[in-house]
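Recall from the previous lesson that a structure prediction takes nothing but the amino acid sequence as input. Here we apply that procedure to HTH-type transcriptional regulator EbgR from Paenibacillus larvae subsp. larvae. The sequence below is the only information supplied.
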Amino acid sequence: MATLKDIAEQANVSISTVSRVLNVDQTLSVSDETKRRIFEIAEQLNYRKSSAKANSKRMKVGLMFSSAYEEKTPDAYSASLRLSLETAARHYPVQLLSFNKEETGTGSESFLGIITVGQIEPGDLEQLSRLTKHVVQIDANEWDKRYDQVTLDVEEAMVKTLQYLTGLGHRRIGFIGTGENGRNGRIEYAYTGWLSKQRLDFETYSRSGTCCQAEDGYRLAKELLQNDPAPTALVAASDNIAIGALRAVQERGLQVPEEISIVGFHDIPVAKFLTPSLTMVKLHTEGVGAAAFELLMERMQKNRAIAKKVILPAELIQRESCGPVPSREYT
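The prediction returns the following tokens.
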């Protein structure tokens, strides 16, 4: 069984430093890199404290998803965010405990930090701020500058996607979203904003449903394809929506990408194995959890007064589902 001495030798620090870092001693003055190295070595050596002592030292961190996330059937994106947070939590002496606003006040008073996902209503955020000043927001529409935030740069990714499609000659570019807040709301806002600046029609070619499943993408894509003239490209706010849209397009007898192009957001592994493989905006959710916990632990340890915002990049993965605008209209 690994000991503090084993960790100290590999990290090239004293046993006392290892102990204080693992117990999140806020008075300890060492670099963030040293702290990270100690936690990583402890994980590699499978270091575990005695259960009674460990439980008494583990800090409780609350995890709250917005109502928009809770009310929808979980999709791959929200599941990947949760996995990213749970994975990151293992590198710190914390207990990550999920709760919702109805449970505020039933044990949540003991949270030393809270991580929220999605746009939390202002009243709910105020209630959380009375529990702890250490709050990290993920995937929110707006940044409350009292709190740290981690976000994916979906706005820039949408602009690059639209530039890519217009570069292929597309002018009638449809959008299928979910109408929810958080990431999908920002994706849709970027879509309408950029097309408006280019004086391209977005009102005719955008649809929003109430969920984010393939069935919604299928239904809304069928609606868009009834337009005259119909869109020559479709952008979907999630993988599931893109897959549903692909089915609707193929049922219509259209060839992808010869007659219509399709782009989705997130990039689940199956996207590259479909026929045709789907062009996707890859959202690096695997980095969200680590960034959130780094902000949370650093602010708790240093009592940092000024909030920070971390923006993680997204990238367009070009595959087979996009091509030049068709030379003739389909009917």
